[in-house]
## 1
Amino acid sequence: MKGLKDRLISGLLLLLSLALCFFSTQKFREQHKKETLFPSGGLASREMLSSYFPGLIDTPGDTEVYIYGGQNPGGNILILGGAHPNEPAGYVTAVLLIENIQVSQGKIIVIPRANNSGFTHSEPQEGNLRGYSLETPGGKRFFRFGSRLTNPIHQWPDPTLYINPSGQKLSGQESRNLNRCYPGKPKGYLTEKIAFAIMEIIKKEKIDLAIDLHEAAPEYPVVNAIVFHENSAELASYSLMELQQIGFEFRLELSPNNLRGLSHREWGDHAQVMAILLETANPSQGRLKGKSSLSLIIEGKDRNYSKAAKFGLLFVPFDGEGIPIKLRVARHLAAIKILLSSFNELNPEKRIEVNHMPSSSQVKLKGIGQFLCPPYRK
Amino acid sequence: MFIVYHLIIFYLVSHFIWYLFRENEFWKRVSVALVLIMFLLRLFLIK
Ligand SMILES: [Zn+2]
């Protein structure tokens, strides 16, 4: 038998392990808390995605749906942010819309955290930050920086080979990538259920135009791009010219017919809506990035990327100034605004009228925080 | 599936704790405690 002293030491070590677990758990649990959003006075109603597809009730895939307008009939628009929670400009643009817009004709539906589960964890082995703060006139607002994929705690295990609902073979982990799971399956994986619920919202709300907000790594060819379904070719090319006139260069990319499961393909094929996906350049999700830091997320500065740009390896200009999040959000806002006005030109019988949408030039000039509510407003 | 996973982890955790009290050498016990932390976190499905 061993002495009392030995047992005491073992007991202390056990207690120490438990204590360490307890404290790290506190930080970990915070990841599952959603940050509060403060919708503008123009909000007509707030629903849950599960009200369109009950299969999501009490699952981590359920998420808020913010509805604006609807009193005067017109065009119905869906705007999706946070399909990939490691693409902050998409999420923040959706939040900016929620906290500002008023719709006097037609209807705008915004889903800011399309893959809610992806916001509850971080990508393994990336060393990413838990989130970032944006300065508003009344204090800082914190936003989560999540993962591209659904949390494996919520959907596990991954298949070796994933055959998505449109029959395309992909690597197993893509079963947790919302933008590979369309048109979804009512009895499939959690991510497929979320995709199915989004298809339901498009059909039940009779959406005319659906916009999916994304970002991509600067070394990825489809960046600063408008990806469009052939349904919306006219809208996309019309909008491109308008955007060039106000100084925004975009690439036009037709959604490839053999790339299945993506929003810009399946939304158009299965619900006949005009489907558009917008990409900006986000160095914090790229493969060439250096250390993950706040300045990488907010200011978009990275030495490796400046170097890569000199070698001509990137698809966007990149210098010491970086590509700050406010520029990327401004780009998304400009594209949305122009897409809506082009939509009105092309469909005068289905007009959409939006007021108080933050202008891209003002966001570029004053920053994002000026258009967010302070953290304390109830 | 989760129950099976939990049971495997729980089985390993109980072994580590048993080893922690059986082992004489101090540094070996410290190493056990370090490994134990990872498994306790997994037991509560944390990272
Ligand atoms: Zn994306």
## 2
Amino acid sequence: MVWRHDNEMQRMLRDSIDAHVSANHSTDRVRECREMSAGFDLQEWKSMAELGWTGVLLSEESGGTGLPLSESLPLAEVIGRNLFPEPFVASAIIAATILNAAYSKAFQVIAEPLVDGSRVITLAFQERPSMKSVAEPSVTCKGGKLNGTKLFVPAWSDITDLLVTCVLDEKLAIVFVPGNAEGLVASPTKMSDGSLMTTLKFSGVAIEPENILLQGQTALDALNLAIANGTLALCAQMEGLATAAFDITVDYMKNRVQFNQPIADFQANRFVMVDLNGEIELGGASWRQALIDLEKNGFEAAHVSISAAKARCSEMVLGVTKASIQYHGGIGFTEDADIGLYLKAALRLSSWLGGAAYHRAAAYDMYREGQVDAGK
Amino acid sequence: MLENNHKDMSVLSDDEFRMKFRNWLETTYPDEWKNPVVFRLHGAEETRWLRMLYDGGFRCPGWPRKYGGMGLGLRKQLIYHEELERIGAARNVDTGATLLGATIIRHGTDAQKQKYLPEVLNGDCLWCQGFSEPNAGSDLASLKTTAVLDGDEYVINGTKIWTTMAPFSHKIFLLARTDMNAPRPQQGISMLIVDDMKQEGMIVRSITNLNGEAEFAQVFFDDVRIPATNVIYKVNKGWDVAKAMLGDERIFIGSPSLANQTFTVLEELISQMGKETDELFKAEVAKAFCDLNDLRALFAQVCDAAIRGVADGKTYSTIKVQASETFKRISDTLINVAQEYGASVGHPDLDGFEKDILAFFLIARPSTIYGGASEVQKTIIARDIFGPLAKR
Ligand SMILES: Cc1cc2nc3c(=O)[nH]c(=O)nc-3n(C[C@H](O)[C@H](O)[C@H](O)COP(=O)(O)OP(=O)(O)OC[C@H]3O[C@@H](n4cnc5c(N)ncnc54)[C@H](O)[C@@H]3O)c2cc1C
């Protein structure tokens, strides 16, 4: 993995995160968070804000740091490696990307509480188990009232506010909805990693004109970019998670002795781990190239490589964590063993924003459409 | 005397260099060698192509200029290979430049440089590599060919096998045991040069491969005499030289170009068979597409690391395994999608489709065997991950 390379800014960021993690974080905390109502710690969210993490991507005009995505992703990687349950990708990457596109209106009211960690913001856009046609929601905003249902909304909590995609005047729009709005009913489901995935039902929720953040093409562009950014951030998070599970398992295999030798000495086991290491390398390379593509050529050009990256990383993180359980033997199947936490987090991250099968097909379809458009 | 007299292209910008080489290729590269179903140039054809490169000033991109090469950094070397791929150039092994030449430049004497480099440059001399033996393949250090000093000559006895292009080569470099009493098998091996493949005691028996080509051979040495000065680097240090033979250029064995070519043929086949939307194969083709995409990504990242000088052995082994395994998998997909046509000898009986898909499939097979079998590469990677085995 020598080819992974931080620049100055990324290294500084990574150092600051590592310091915070070793002082404040452990798998015990991960377990405690699983018992909390939101599945994460509102207090820790505030500490992360103090360190500048929640505003990392938000433009400086909105009080954030305004780093480019590439320089923010070491955070996602460390968050994955340490199983942080706080909704970094959902809020600080995805929602922040939308806010950046709408900053003139959203500025103080919405962005500032995200920067200071007093609120969490999340984007509600999905209405079915697929990432297809997310730009054509059935939720409507008519006569100042929002109606319809959103599925799979992450980061729901007592302090969460919403950005919601809907159709307004026959065009895509993104509106702001406070979490305590009247007419909003939230039904959260507990997920394998302890986080919540929430169904939101809007029944005539009042939308003030100033809370209509984006409309038409700008809404569409912001949505696409938010999903692209979020998908790559998830990839970075999955790489971090997989690397951690891999290292823990290698360590275990070196120390566990059966048949008078460490189980790490059996060639069959070594080769499985080598193959998985190859998958981590491919995943890491895939999302990094997709990121270069995105920052250089924009999300339309980068769709193919982003989907390929998500497909690889989703499959890779599951592959690594499943093998991790296998090589831990019986202890791997216990509630007490930390390695299980990695598998459960992997399950959640790999399926969120589309799993491997979906994205492989999507990458190939979009590639073919591109070929047709180019007249090939 | 060896100095390259052509203009120094290392000072051009990357784009200028790319366009210069592209233009040259477009005007010079012979049409009959483009996108060959036969993959490689042999013998006189290879000599002709090397000579064209030489005359055009595009020979030996990685060699320093003072030895007649182009003196290009890794980034421009990559561009060089990309442009060859773009024009659909036939591959050639060019063992003389990539292995022998690079090693002579690093470890050879002045006399060896004067003698061997010019004829590699102008294509007059083709080389082959005699490392593997019938009983020493992956475990190369167990090799048994001997070279015994007799006055100022070495006398070589033994046999080498799978020697690529031996039937077309003029010279061979080989590993032979020069100290029979060395404590470890890796010690007591020297790297030697035989100046004439046709000299007394040499027999080359070509071997037909699974794809029907007689590219490699078994080479027999029966009291073959060579001057004692035909040792590369030091006597009994041949193992060290062999290990370091491929420097940065190791990266090219991880190039996605074969996987890429195969995918292009897969696309043609799919469209020829009208199977663009066939659900039966869609997932498999999508997987091939993503595999290729990610291999390219890994190659790009590893190249960047190599250019920064930080790529390590594990990384090179990883990219070698990934490139060859991906090439094989995509060729498997090609055969699967072709259904009944998959086993056709020559190109399948499909209107206007002239690609020999069976050849792609067959030629992909040994990619995980030569240059260090996948299992051997994985053993190297595993040692890096886990450390050495606890027992032993
Ligand atoms: C097309 C082609 C061109 C070649 N060109 C040349 C050339 O120009 N010059 C030259 O010197 N050689 C050449 N070779 C030889 C090549 O380097 C050897 O084939 C290779 O090193 C493997 O050796 P082997 O064939 O004896 O197989 P073996 O060493 O007998 O291995 C057979 C198989 O056993 C498995 N295996 C081996 N070791 C291990 C291990 N440690 N753990 C697990 N599994 C293992 C692998 O699957 C391997 O494929 C060429 C080979 C091919 C196929």
